[in-house]
Amino acid sequence: MAPFDYPQAEIGVFGGSGFYELLDSPSSFKIDTPYGPPSAPVMHGEIAGREVAFMPRHGMTHDIPPHTINYRANLWAMKQLGVNRIIGPNACGSLQKHVKPGDFVIVDQFVDRTNGRKDTFYDGPIVVHVSSADPYCPTMRKVALDKADTLGITAHDGGTVVVIQGPRFSTRAESRWYASQGWEVINMTQYPEAYLARELEICYVNISLITDYDVGMEDVPPVTNEEVIRVFEENNQKVKDLLFAMIPALPSVRDCPCAHALEGAAF
Asked: Do 54 and 45 meet the contact criterion of CB atoms below 8 Å apart?
């Protein structure tokens, strides 16, 4: 199928751990990219009159660990469908007592602690330096917070997510160090996903669903994958409710810096 045969979508959603379905009766499309295959076929459908593309970042059966996700292919596939806004919910741990399991955090910063991931579309000969000073779309963050408030969902306004390589969880020493920096959230997939969206001038917002306290917290037992999935599944409907409220509320015109991220970025 040629690129121009794919259906167009305005808004993209990446599903995280425990979140593999969003649309009712979607069409499914396998998309080829210059960076190899994406995590899964893209599912295309409609929510409140808006064309939406959905892809589970770990694959349909959660068989792709965070450090081997083909982030570039995933983002490129969304761009090829015409997506200009992406919502990226995921399961995260809390580094601070006031950020509790079941809470959402609409983060505004990330810290990258990964290594070896393909994290740019610009490997030369064109040299491009894209600002990531404020990596999350301010317009989408406001919509997320407003709609969370309307739905009665506890959502923290802002926070820093530290992105670790995975697939292992942190040691207690690492976790205490991250917490001592004042960072609120820990996760394995926000980098380079959020930054690659910026390189493609796609607006991006993260919804961090807190599933557990990280191990550096005093009197907290080590986190298990079973516990992460259990809490995520318990709150999955809240994630979907927020997505279904956000999507029709996103303005049709983009007036945020994300839409012009490449201006002046190339040498």
From this structure: yes
Token pair, residue 36, equals 């190899």
The question of whether 134 is a catalytic residue gets the answer: no
Among residues 112, 149, 212, 219, which one is catalytic? 212
Considering the domain delimited by 3-252, tell me its CATH architecture: 3-Layer(aba) Sandwich (3.40)
What number of residues does the chain have?
267
214: annotated active-site residue: yes
Active-site position among 149, 214, 219, 241: 214
Q: What does the pLDDT look like over 176-210, one tens digit per residue? A: 999 999 999 999 999 999 999 999 999 999 999 99
Give me the residues paired with residue 14 across strands: 55
pLDDT number for residue 64:
95
For the chain, which residues score pLDDT lower than 70? Answer: 1-4, 16-21
Domain ranges of the chain: 3-252
pTM: 0.93
Q: What pLDDT is recorded for position 19?
A: 62
Task: For residues 84 and 77, give the distance between their C-alpha atoms in angstroms, rounded to a whole number.
Answer: 12
Print burial letters for 79-90: b (CB count within 10 Å at least 16), e (below 16): bbbebbbbbbbb
